Structure formats: C-alpha cells, structure tokens
C-alpha cells in the first residue's frame, strides 16, 4: 500500500495571519509579490526561497542540477494522466503562440483559460476532483484555430491529415462522456475500465489487474517490492504485459534527461551517502528494477545529514484507483535549520505518542523506528507536485521499509508561508466562522496549529501503528487511501489537544488547539464543499477523509450536542459546544480506524467511507458555493517556480547560481514546454 503521503491542507490559505507576521515587514518582503493570477477555480501564487544565500556554491550547484532533473519529467505526468494530454497540450500551445485572430474575443479568452487549466492539471481532468473539465469555446473555434496553423505545428500521428487529427482529438476535449473521469472510485463499477488515466491499456479490467499483481505476491515475503509501481499494464492478444518506465522502455526520452542531470548532481553531492542515493536512483531509472528502487528508498531514508534533499520519481499512487501505479513527481529542497529544531521535538517524542495513543495495544508499533522530521525550503516543484503542491511529505511508502528503517517526514515552510501571506486580509473567516470568539482563536493560533497538525499528521500519524501479521497491505483496496489519511489526521487531531504539546513547548496556549478543531469541522462539514462540482460526490481521498471524520464526530456527538450545525439568516455554521468531548470522540474514531487498517477489515472501511465520507448534501452545497462566489476566493492554489540561472566559467564549471522571481504563469509553462519536453506526443500503444 503506497500512500502515507502528501497531505494538502486546504484551508490554510484562508487564515488572515496578521498577528503572526512581524510588525514591520522588511524591505525585501514588501517587494515580494506572492499573488500571480487567478482564473477558473484556481489561484496562482509565488513562493520565496528564503535563505538561498546561506547555501555554499557546491550546495547551490547540487540544487541546480536536481532542479533540472525535476523539470524534465513534466511530460511523463501529462501522458500518465491521459494518453491524449500531450497532443492536446501541444495543439493548444501552438495556437497560443501563433494566434492571429482577435485576442479580445470571448472565445479566445475562454481558450486561454482552458489552456491554463490544462497546464495546471497536467491534462484535461481536474487536478483534484479528477473529472474532465470542458472547454467554454466552441469546437468550431478550435477547428478554425488548428486549421490556420502551419500544419507542421499540429502534433499529428505519422501520415495523419489535419482533418483526421481534429476528428480524433475534438471529442476527447468536448464530449462529456468520453474519458469523463481520470480516476473512478465508484463502488459497483470496474474502477480500471472506468478511469481515463493511462496506467492501463485498452481492455484491461479491474479483475485482470487484481489477478496479475495478486499472482506476484508471496504472503511469506516480508520485504515485497511495490509491484506494478513503474509500469503501464497492457493487454495484447488477451495476454497481460507490463511496459516498464525506464531507459529503453516507456518514457525513455524523458528519463534519459533526468538521469543526465542526476549524474551531474552526483558530482556535487554533499557526502558519500547522498552520492550513493543518487547512484541507486540512476540505476533504477536504467533498469526499472523494483528491488533497486527499494534499495534506493532505504539509502534515501538513511540520509538525514545532508542539507539538500530531493524527491524524483514514480512516487504516489493516488492517481490509480487500485493504488498500484505511481505518478511521476519531483521536488528539491534544503533544510530550514531553525524551524527544524521544532519539528525534531516531535520525532524525539515519537515513542511517547505511540505509547499513549487510544489505539488497542496489539495495533501499536512495538518499536518506533527513527521518524526523522525536518522543516524544509522548497527550491523547485515538478511533476505531480507542480503547480499544486503538498505542504508536507512523508516517504517512502513501502510498509516494510517504514517499519525497518523509518521514514522521512517534512513540512515545507516556504510554501506554507506563501499561502499565509497571499491570503492575508481575506474575508473568509468573517463569512464562515460562527462567532467572534472562535474567529479570534483562529486568527491568533490558526496558522500555528495548522502547521503543527501537518507535522503531527506526517511525522507521527502515518508512521504510527502496525498491521497484524499476514494482513495484506492492499486489503482495503479503493478505501485504503482514505482510511490511511484519516488515521494520520486523527492522530494529529488527538494529540494537538494534549497537554504534552505545552510541556514540550510546541504550543504555548492551552486554548490554541481549538483553532484546529474548529477549522477541521468547518472544513469537513461545510467549506470543502466549495471544491465539489454541482451534482457530484466526494472523490478525492483527503477530502473523503475530512468528510468522514467530521460527519462521524457530528453524528456520534449528537446526543450530547458536542458539535452542531446551526442556521443563522439562511447561512449554516458549525458550533462546537464541548471541545473536550470532541477530543474523546476523535480518540474513539482513531482506535476504530487503526483497527480497520491493522486487521485489513475491508467491509468496515467501506461502510465508514460510504456512509460518512462520500455524500454531499445538495442544499448545503448550493449555499456554500454561493457564499464562496461572493467572496471571490479560488478554492485551489498552485505555484510558479523561481527561475534559476547557472553562471559558468570558460571551462564550463558552475561559479554561481542566480535566482529570480519575475516569471509569469503562462510564460513559465510555455518555457517548460519548449525547454523541458523530450517525449514524443504519442507514447503508448493505443
Ligand atoms: Zn497524509
């Protein structure tokens, strides 16, 4: 089971954090522009690489090479998300760069918005909700625009006419039923055949996948590789086979570039251990051998000393309904030494937290293996971390590696900071919080407790608990991701209200946790509905998890009126009457969710998720959407990267790496498509 990862706290950006900011910003801060632009349901922000100049030249050079490796996999993700995504992106970009018509027209403006959305989602499906979004310009406009291009710019197949190309591509973009969902989680349908992603070839069914990978599993193997992680499964003449992502295999052209830059990075490694990590990753990209991948993951976990660190590869499997295939992602970062001191405290107390949790003793970890926690500054976001990014990461995903070697847990400080600063001053709290008292608590402690909850989620939550012997880590199937995220969130919620937080100085006010409790309930019951399309149910694992926890607590606290939904002037608000009882309920649910995970109780997982995590109340949904519209807040955010420039001497050695923040969103996307786009338009068998 791979997951454990990427949590994305959605409401963070809403806190006006006036009281947390220094009274007088420095000149540099005043100039820095966090807000880039807004369109559709998205807002683009910019993050600052604080303390860049604290790095040595060697470290900067290392970051530079790793950044390059992080940008070269962008095409892979587009192709993984849908087999037509590269063709569509390249067509749209050709129109964008060469359009001769009226750029002020409504149709052209709708076209630009669509292209910006395709860039943001790495394809034609919503990055979060996974549903296909439709163009708001006409097929006629599109056909005219394509036909007026130099035909060499139209990414056709060999010997295909422009008309035939249009006939193939137009329905993919415009027909709602075709490739309707990137990932299907609906119970009762074939989740593989129902998903529009490209992890499986034509005709492959859920049953095929379960049998194919089921046959590889050996229950006696205590160190299984993540079967299927780095390949596309296809069916040819009724036989199943894997197309492996590697040099000489699928996505070779991009992987060759990634490997080139990783090898360059190896020359600037900070120490022998880090050099080994890079070499093992290169080996894995060359061979596609998952045993090597596990060796790499182990070496990576063990490297806790290096200041610069990175993720580069096929990592998270949220994009596959069965959680086997991993999307390509990358990020590069360096340690924020000051902030890491705080995160470290959590790791040092991991044993205490595990011992005191409300979980039954047989489901607890016997030995808590080094959870190394750190706070980092991101230098680049790539693949599935770009432009939308997690704010915390906990890797690797392999259960046995986590058990034997531990995991690395990070909180990305400069991203969180950018969310907070970009949101300063919006009226979100006024609109959705029930009373001035709650609002004050959230203004005073919201940012602090949100960060702390992220750290607890990543660093303790995902790292806690154990499976009973013989339990298949994939036993919860499509409910696995949601249950895992719920487990981590509950662990964080339970402990953020513990007096231990004050004792180890992670919080300095016994009321502070209430900010997180209120935010969590408000988000799970009300505000996250703003991210759902009308008529749709909740699909995404983190959102399902938040809905599950909030609705379960609401229902189980009903008799005692622990939490209530009240209506004032036609607006719905959360009221928490008893924070202490709410914590008890959180503990009860944590114990049950851990039991489900430890025992692999699929039936109980399904019941919990289907009952509390999926359904949307249409009236409330409509109300929330209207309130959001009035505020003009985009429900989703993403980032542009800084621009890095290596200054070289005559021999070609790097003598400096310069960083700048001037690039706009479309400008950056067009540059990436020009400079970092090695894949052919059509990669896999159709
Ligand atoms: Zn998580």
SSE diagram, text form:
Elements: H1 27-31, E1 35-39, E2 42-46, H2 57-71, H3 74-81, H4 85-98, H5 106-121, H6 139-147, H7 162-174, H8 206-214, E3 231-236, E4 239-244, H9 252-266, H10 272-287, H11 290-302, E5 308-316, E6 327-335, H12 337-348, H13 350-356, E7 371-383, E8 392-395, H14 399-405, E9 407-412, H15 413-423, H16 428-432, H17 436-461, H18 480-496, H19 500-503, H20 513-525, H21 541-556, E10 563-568, E11 571-576, H22 579-599, H23 602-613, H24 618-631, E12 636-640, E13 643-648, E14 654-660, H25 665-675
Parallel strand pairs: 2-12, 7-9
Antiparallel strand pairs: 1-2, 3-4, 5-6, 6-7, 8-9, 10-11, 13-14
Helix pairs in contact: 2-9, 4-5, 6-7, 9-10, 10-11, 17-18, 17-20, 18-21, 18-22, 20-21, 21-22, 21-23
The structure holds zinc ion.
Stretches with pLDDT under 50, minimum 5 residues: 1-29
Strand order of the largest sheet: 5-6-7-9-8
Q: Tell me which ligands are bound.
A: zinc ion
The helix count comes to: 25
- Number of E-state strands: 14
Radius of gyration, in angstroms, nearest whole number: 24 Å
Major sheet size, sense and barrel closure: 5 strands, mixed
Q: Tell me, briefly, the overall form.
A: globular
Report, as a whole number of angstroms, the end-to-end distance.
29 Å
Oligomer: single chain
Mean pLDDT: 91
Fraction of helical residues: 40-55%
**Could you say which structural class the secondary elements and strand pairing correspond to?**
alpha+beta
What portion of the residues fall into strands of 2 or more residues? 5-15%
